[in-house]
Design brief:
alpha/beta; Rossmann fold; 2 domains; 6-stranded parallel sheet; 35% strand; globular; binds flavin-adenine dinucleotide
């Protein structure tokens, strides 16, 4: 079992009034793109899971956090300053790409909100990956680092703004099926994952081609 390690905060970057990126010292912490860590404030008594947002080869660990109003941990994470310390345990999860990537494999990544974190890590780690990222957000500022993906590979679905495709990720994939041969990786809230799973099965996608990670 890996030991609990302490990491200094390097930077905190806000994307929206409620979501931010926490950058921590890497300190040689090992993980595979798609995996998550267990994080808390030393002595705070509350730990939560966060999927790593940065790539395997970066010399820092980025975490994308949505501050939950009245939440036990996220308001405390939001108040952290550079130099403060967090405690990290892990990595966990089997939500990873096949290793090696099968030749000719095409991936469809589907996320809502901060559920984009594992996919950002995967494409930063493997820039030559053949993928389409379908990202469900309320409005444009929740597309976070959209510029990190080639425009033709990033498809935001807006539920509150006419800034591109208007609707949910399930609406997009119902109207634009991506084929039964693709590998589907789905991350976010449970309701979206359940709906999408049913849709993909109805579109003929085998259960062995649908990987899911539930955030809440
Ligand atoms: C495997 C895994 C990976 C995760 N990775 C991330 C991540 O990369 N980034 C991240 O922000 N969260 C992530 N989460 C959620 C995270 O672990 C916490 O649940 C979240 O930060 C809330 O913590 P809290 O103590 O402030 O809220 P709590 O006091 O625990 O309140 C929890 C409530 O907040 C709501 N909630 C939880 N997460 C979110 C969210 N992201 N957006 C909107 N509402 C939410 C839910 O309704 C839940 O009932 C992950 C969860 C799991 C299981």
């Amino acid at each position: 079992m890996n030991p609990r390690t302490q990491h200094r905060i390097l930077d905190l970057h806000w994307y929206t009034p409620a979501s931010f990126r926490l950058r921590l010292e890497r300190k040689g912490f090992p993980f595979k793109a798609g995996q998550n860590i267990n994080m808390g404030i030393p002595g705070g008594g509350i730990n939560r899971e966060y999927t790593v947002y940065s790539g395997e080869h970066d010399d820092f660990i980025d975490i994308l956090v949505r501050q939950v109003q009245g939440g036990s941990l996220t308001p405390r994470l939001a108040a952290l300053k550079p130099g403060d310390i967090v405690e990290v345990h892990g990595p966990y999860s089997r939500f990873m790409l096949p290793d090696p990537i099968p030749s000719g494999a095409r991936f469809v990544f589907v996320a809502t909100g901060t559920g984009v974190a594992p996919f950002h890590s995967m494409v930063k780690t493997l820039p030559k990956l053949d993928y389409l990222l379908v990202h469900g957000v309320r409005q444009k500022d929740e597309t976070y680092d959209a510029g990190d993906y080639p425009a033709e590979r990033y498809l935001p679905c807006f539920t509150r703004e006419d800034a591109g495709f208007r609707g949910r990720v399930t609406d997009y994939l119902r109207a634009h099926p991506q084929g039964a041969d693709a590998w589907y990786y789905v991350c976010g809230n449970r309701a979206m994952i359940n709906d999408l799973y049913d849709l993909l099965r109805a579109q003929g996608v085998g259960g062995d081609h649908i990987m899911t990670e539930v955030f809440f």
